[in-house]
């Protein structure tokens, strides 16, 4: 239920409907493709149909000669444009030259080869069919493990081992732990490639004004400011002459936390033709050329004692990077390593990553970015250990959590878990499903031949990215709050919400702090000429880092309001609350609107105070925040068909203080949907010639509204010291907790057949085969 | 995802439409749920698109007492949408199997615009209707500028995506029998998780009399290049008492002798096995509905 | 994608083998083949217009025949590319004397079973969006080819016997 708001109520903590929704659900929001400009041209991009090929020649004449085609550019025309940037740095990282158009070679299906620019989008599309490219197809490789085999085709000829980097991390004494272990459990676990599939594909409009040397780029991105800095660099433009605007963004899930060739390419085209130009990514291109997520092959080993105490963890992680590094590509698996111990007290860990080039589109951050992979791995391993020790999986988990008194808890991978009570959400989830009864019900069901399973996962996540030293581009966030002369409030946030709802939650925070109505507040974002520099929206950071920035800006502003209040009430004992200043002695009050008017009119100013009411705060978080939680899934496998039915889904999350429960539930639901997608049906499949054979939505199976189970959510609240709002992120939690809970439940349903592990997605045929073959794959 | 240039006409009469397609390289557009995606991908690039949606004649759904089948027939205009068939009181009471099949197609959006004529003409090997139409021994009424003909469904669908349609010919209507009282029916489908198309789909009709199964029709889609009638299953079940064992025995023959399809969603082996499972399920439900 | 199967032609093995090497016959039987030119020994250039329901693709490509073991077997390599993608089929065809059970043959029941086994690679849009239908359409196209071949064979036999 949504609540109507009156000024005196506290808004934080209420289920308030999103301020964003009216424009979204009435179709009046402006997305990139809605932008029309006089003289606007349209671009279409010709892309490689081959996974690997040499370009012998390109003939653009037939396209150029077409009426309405104004230009065609190919690799040799864009020499002056800098490479697509990789923001991650790792020791010894091999970074292939990533030009915005292919030069003499293509490296994956979808690699941009040429761009045609025309007066309308139909002509532009026709034009690319007329460009003649003579390719010499080469051997391609799409499987990361095959790419590591000697003699595999080299994705980049200069690096025949296809290895972009190796990365080693160790904590404690892992070798000793394995030597002393009473049990060692091993398993190969994969996290398949996924296509992020935001509803709005990418799109760019570039508008260059040559007289002013100003480039405006409208782009569907999660990081407007970083995009401006990086594209300006690529194009050799002065950063202050470039403006990035993100209109409405229809979802990103990390896929728009990037700088893409097309963003610089459209800037380049606009500057060349002197006219605005638009490029809208098609769904096919979205599959082929926007980053994919996941792409792990992991080899896990756990060392433990017979009583269930975990001792050591070993991981060999093979990351399918694709053909190039996008903005954060090589950094993603390092996040998996940081999170590899999950919530458990592994004091001894050792991990080795191999980053592998393949002839596929690059992988990069996708909802959870490295953490779902890690959680999937450790949570599967805990179940395997429980199976080996014949222990209850809940009991095994409870045994290995750090105690409430052990926080901040320093992990063997060097993280400091800020605060937590890891048993609390698990116990709550166990209560919600009535665990003991449920196990009995399962026993009865199995006795009747039904394949019913119960799956548990607990998860922690690094979020609130993050302390700047630990992030590639600064991990702080910014906020400005202005009270206009009329008393209306404008919030400018450096984050770039695109579905998360910060226009609502930030208005709630500001309304409570200032004691004004939410309707008097607007939250602006996503325009580099309006908003002070910011980092953007990703990694469950907007509320956890942008929120505190806003909080502190509000405190600064309130201090200033108070000064004006003291001056106007002629008192030094004044309190600001409920949208007014009150003199505690006389009881006299003055409204903020009057204060605002006085501050701008500036007939008289408090001592050492400037006119106007505006405050900006850049907030640097002292640490990441580590939310946590537990999911429990009850599922049943149809013996005849292998289909999985999710009978119950329970998700308990601890993201500490909840600003808007409606939005938190929404994030959990959406996150779980994407987790279910990975667990049950989604997979980006490249064939052995590196053709993406799940290249659109008729073959790439997304979860649908009609296939979603009912999700029962619950929350626990364990105070966090990381920020003044006491908030942690929640954007990725649903996804992170989901896939292991689902797979654990299905393995549990089939465990009496001898099934120990099943790789995702759990397609019905895969499960049917396991059942038919008595558990043998 | 932008189609090639094409000419577009939206005639309001069948005659006009037939004259337009007789000129060559024209494609007719019904619901567009199959044609438009192909055009956007440039896998289809007709020079001329003739939109049938304004031809009122093709939308009629009515019963015809004498007609093509002894017990009467339902005539379903080619433009009748999946949703119309699923929700039509007439179809639900007179040919409930077809309504059940229609309700299983794709999703709401697809059912709102996709048509029975379009689906039949497209002859997708995984489409749902063909299973039902086979089990119903339906007929396809075709028309050209010069004349009309009616083909049984198993002669109309020739192979994967191939029909007996001539280039200048249109599907005018689909004709199905008015169901005999007491006939049990069922459509059971294993949907492919991405598109909703059938990995396999099985439609069954059965009649019982004096404790014996007297009539069985089974149509199968998704398994092979084209939908077919599983006559072996029909013969095996007819004359039995319709027990669970009888059903299993008959259903076990559902995929016999069929060259099964393989794709990324299901191997030939899995498809074959699922055909048996879903045949048994369809027969079981149909028998439980028969009286 | 693996393809495999067999088709029985109402032709003697020698004759079936000859027909399968005859460019005029191949041109006639390959669905949509619009032009087949000999460019070398056992090597031809072709234009194909493949029409499957609403789908239409223009392909330019090559046909090659290698590993000749007349009349027992040979390898057929077909490559084509067009705007909608490209394909490469590589298959071994084995001809085995067999009995014809269906259809009419003026030879009585003597015939040849052509067994084929090979690999089809598809790329571009076709591969990206056509997965669901590749197997059934590939089979359909192969079936059509053999049907036309049987037809052509019957005609030429007729012509040979009845002057
Ligand atoms: C997301 C999605 C999911 C789907 N899922 C399913 C599913 O689960 N099951 C299923 O069966 N189908 C499914 N479909 C297909 C859908 O049912 C289509 O509507 C149907 O196959 C074609 O009907 P149409 O009216 O849209 O035809 P169109 O797309 O307009 O036409 C298809 C072809 O038939 C020809 N044609 C159309 N009408 C006539 C006529 N009267 N005479 C001669 N030729 C004609 C056209 O020229 C064209 O070649 C799905 C489609 C989509 C997009």
Please render the helix and strand layout as text.
The complex is a heterotrimer of chains A (777), B (291) and C (163).
Chain A lengths: L20 H5 L15 E7 L5 E7 L1 H4 L4 E6 L30 E2 L5 E7 L2 H10 L1 E6 L6 H4 L15 E9 L2 H7 L2 E9 L11 E7 L4 E6 L4 H12 L6 E4 L15 H13 L3 E4 L2 H7 L6 E9 L5 E13 L9 H7 L9 E10 L13 H19 L3 H8 L8 E2 L5 E2 L5 H11 L1 H13 L3 E10 L16 E7 L5 E5 L8 H13 L6 E4 L17 H28 L4 E4 L2 E4 L5 E3 H10 L12 E6 L8 E10 L6 E11 L6 H21 L29 E5 L17 H18 L13 H9 L5
Parallel strand pairs in A: 1-12, 10-11, 14-15, 20-21, 27-28
Antiparallel strand pairs in A: 1-5, 2-4, 2-6, 3-5, 7-15, 8-13, 9-10, 9-12, 13-14, 16-17, 18-26, 19-20, 19-25, 22-23, 23-24, 26-27
Helix pairs in contact in A: 6-7, 10-18, 12-13, 14-15, 15-16, 17-18
Chain B lengths: L6 E3 L4 H8 L4 E4 L5 H6 L7 E4 L9 E4 L8 E5 L4 H6 L1 H6 L1 H8 L4 H6 L2 H7 L6 H7 L3 E5 L4 E5 H4 E3 L2 E2 L6 E8 L6 E8 L6 E12 L2 E10 L6 E2 L1 H7 L6 H8 L16 H22 L2
Chain C lengths: L1 E8 L3 H9 L1 H7 L3 E8 L2 E10 L2 E15 L3 E10 L2 E15 L10 E14 L1 H5 L1 H31 L2
The structure holds flavin-adenine dinucleotide.
Keywords:
heterotrimer, A: 777 residues, alpha+beta, Aldehyde Oxidoreductase, domain 4, Aldehyde Oxidoreductase, domain 3, 3 domains, five-stranded mixed sheet, 28% helix, disordered N terminus, C: 163 residues, Alpha-D-Glucose-1,6-Bisphosphate, Chain A, domain 4, 4 helices, 32% helix, binds flavin-adenine dinucleotide
């Amino acid at each position: 239920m949504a609540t109507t708001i009156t000024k005196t109520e506290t808004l934080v903590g209420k289920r308030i409907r999103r301020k964003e929704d009216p424009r979204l659900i009435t179709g009046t929001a402006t997305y990139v493709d809605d932008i029309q400009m006089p003289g606007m041209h349209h671009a279409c991009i010709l892309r490689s149909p081959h996974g690997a090929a040499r370009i012998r020649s390109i003939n653009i004449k037939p396209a150029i000669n077409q009426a309405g085609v104004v230009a065609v550019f190919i690799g040799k025309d864009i020499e002056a444009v800098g490479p697509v940037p990789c923001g991650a740095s790792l020791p010894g990282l091999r970074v292939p030259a990533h030009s915005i158009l292919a030069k003499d070679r293509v490296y994956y299906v979808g690699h941009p080869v040429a761009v045609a620019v025309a007066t309308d989008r139909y002509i532009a599309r026709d034009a690319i069919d007329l460009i003649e490219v003579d390719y010499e197809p080469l051997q391609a490789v799409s499987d990361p493990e095959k790419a590591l085999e000697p003699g595999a085709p080299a994705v980049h000829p200069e690096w025949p081992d296809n290895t972009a980097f190796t990365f080693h991390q160790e904590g404690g004494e892992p070798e000793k732990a394995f030597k002393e272990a009473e049990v060692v459990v091993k398993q190969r676990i994969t996290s398949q490639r996924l296509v992020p599939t935001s509803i709005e594909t990418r799109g760019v409009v570039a508008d260059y004004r040559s007289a002013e040397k100003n480039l405006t780029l409208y782009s569907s991105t999660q990081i407007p400011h970083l995009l401006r800095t990086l594209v300006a660099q690529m194009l050799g433009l002065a950063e202050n002459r470039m403006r990035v605007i993100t209109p409405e963004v229809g979802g990103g899930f990390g896929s728009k936390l990037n700088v893409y060739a097309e963003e610089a390419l459209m800037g380049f085209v606009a500057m060349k033709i002197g006219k605005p130009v638009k490029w809208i990514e098609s769904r096919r291109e979205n599959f082929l050329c926007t980053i994919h997520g996941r792409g792990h092959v992991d080899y896990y080993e756990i060392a433990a004692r017979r009583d269930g105490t975990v001792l050591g963890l070993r991981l060999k992680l093979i990351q399918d990077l694709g053909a190039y590094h996008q903005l954060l590509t090589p950094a993603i698996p390092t996040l998996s390593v940081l999170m590899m111990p999950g919530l458990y007290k592994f004091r001894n860990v050792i991990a080795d990553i191999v980053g592998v080039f393949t002839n596929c589109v690059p992988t990069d951050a996708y909802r959870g970015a490295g953490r779902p992979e890690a959680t999937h791995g450790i949570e599967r391993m805990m179940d395997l250990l429980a199976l080996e020790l014949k222990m209850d999986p809940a009991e095994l988990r409870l045994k290995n959590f750090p105690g409430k008194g052990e926080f901040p808890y320093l992990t063997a991978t060097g993280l400091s878990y800020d605060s937590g009570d890891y048993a609390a959400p698990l116990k709550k989830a166990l209560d919600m499903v009535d665990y003991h009864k449920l196990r009995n019900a399962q026993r009865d069901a199995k006795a009747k031949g039904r394949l019913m399973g119960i799956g548990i996962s607990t998860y922690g996540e690094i979020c609130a990215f993050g302390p700047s030293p630990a992030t590639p581009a600064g991990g702080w966030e910014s906020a400005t709050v202005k009270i206009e002369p009329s008393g209306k409030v404008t919030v400018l946030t450096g984050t770039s919400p695109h579905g998360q709802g910060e226009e609502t939650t930030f208005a709630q925070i500001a309304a409570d702090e200032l004691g004004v109505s939410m309707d008097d507040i607007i939250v602006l974002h996503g325009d580099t000429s309006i908003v002070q520099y910011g980092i953007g929206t990703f990694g469950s950071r907007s509320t956890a880092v942008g929120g505190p920035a806003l909080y502190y800006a509000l405190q600064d502003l309130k201090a200033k309001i108070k000064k004006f209040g003291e001056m106007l009430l002629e008192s030094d004992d004044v309190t600001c609350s409920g949208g007014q200043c009150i003199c505690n002695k006389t009881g006299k009050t003055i409204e903020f609107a009057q204060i605002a008017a006085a501050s701008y009119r500036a007939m008289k100013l408090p001592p050492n105070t400037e006119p106007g009411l505006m405050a900006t705060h850049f907030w640097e978080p002292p640490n990441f925040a580590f939310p946590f939680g537990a999911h429990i899934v009850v599922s049943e496998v149809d013996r005849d068909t292998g289909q999985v039915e999710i009978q119950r889904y329970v998700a308990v999350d601890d993201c500490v203080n909840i600003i808007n429960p409606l939005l938190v539930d929404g994030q959990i639901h959406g996150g779980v949907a994407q987790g279910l997608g990975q667990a049950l049906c989604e997979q980006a499949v490249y064939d052995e010639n590196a053709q993406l054979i799940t290249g659109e939505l008729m073959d790439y199976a997304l979860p649908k509204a009609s296939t979603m189970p009912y999700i029962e959510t619950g929350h626990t609240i364990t105070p966090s010291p990381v920020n003044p709002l006491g908030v942690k992120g929640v954007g990725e939690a649903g996804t992170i907790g989901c896939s292991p809970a689902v797979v654990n439940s299905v393995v549990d349903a089939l465990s009496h057949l001898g099934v120990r592990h099943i790789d995702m997605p759990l397609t019905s045929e895969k499960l049917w085969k396991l059942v038919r073959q008595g558990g043998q794959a | 995802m932008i189609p090639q240039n094409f000419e577009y006409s939206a005639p309001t009469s069948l005659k006009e439409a037939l004259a337009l397609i007789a000129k060559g390289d024209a494609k007719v557009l019904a619901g567009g749920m199959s044609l438009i995606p192909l055009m956007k991908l440039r896998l289809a690039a007709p020079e001329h698109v003739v939109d049938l949606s304004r031809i009122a004649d093709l939308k009629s759904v009515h019963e015809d007492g004498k007609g093509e089948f002894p017990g009467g027939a339902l005539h379903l205009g080619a433009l009748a949408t999946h949703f119309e068939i699923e929700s039509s009181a007439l179809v639900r009471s007179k040919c409930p199997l077809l309504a059940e099949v229609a309700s299983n197609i794709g999703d709401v959006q697809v059912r709102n615009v996709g048509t029975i004529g379009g689906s039949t003409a497209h002859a997708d090997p995984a489409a749902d209707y063909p299973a039902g139409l086979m089990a119903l021994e339906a007929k396809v009424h075709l028309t050209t500028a010069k004349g009309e003909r009616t083909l049984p469904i198993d002669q109309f669908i020739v192979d994967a995506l191939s029909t007996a349609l001539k280039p200048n010919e249109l599907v005018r209507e689909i004709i199905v029998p008015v169901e005999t009282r007491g006939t049990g029916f069922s459509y059971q489908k294993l949907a492919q998780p991405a598109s909703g198309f059938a990995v396999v789909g099985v439609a069954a009709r059965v009649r019982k009399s004096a404790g014996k199964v007297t009539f069985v029709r089974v149509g199968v889609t998704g398994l092979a290049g084209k939908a077919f009638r599983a006559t072996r299953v029909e013969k095996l079940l007819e004359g039995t008492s319709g027990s669970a064992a009888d059903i299993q025995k008959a259903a076990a023959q559902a995929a016999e002798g069929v060259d099964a399809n393989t794709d990324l969603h299901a191997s030939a082996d899995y498809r074959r096995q699922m055909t048996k499972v879903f045949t048994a399920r369809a027969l079981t439900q149909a028998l439980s509905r028969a009286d | 994608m693996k393809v495999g199967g067999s088709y029985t032609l109402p032709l003697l093995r020698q004759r079936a083998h000859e027909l399968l090497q005859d460019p005029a016959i191949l041109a006639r039987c390959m669905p949509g083949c619009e032009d087949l030119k000999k460019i070398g020994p056992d090597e031809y250039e072709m234009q194909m217009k493949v029409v499957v329901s609403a789908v239409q693709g223009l392909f330019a490509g090559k046909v090659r025949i290698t590993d000749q073991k007349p009349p027992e077997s040979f390898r057929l390599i077909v490559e084509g590319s067009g705007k909608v993608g490209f394909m490469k089929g590589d298959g071994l065809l084995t001809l085995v004397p067999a009995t014809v059970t269906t259809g009419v043959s003026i030879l009585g029941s003597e015939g040849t079973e052509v067994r084929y086994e090979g690999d089809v690679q598809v790329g571009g849009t076709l591969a990206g969006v056509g997965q669901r239908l590749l197997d059934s359409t590939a089979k359909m196209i192969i079936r059509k080819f053999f049907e036309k071949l049987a037809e052509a064979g019957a005609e030429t036999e007729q012509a040979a016997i009845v002057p």
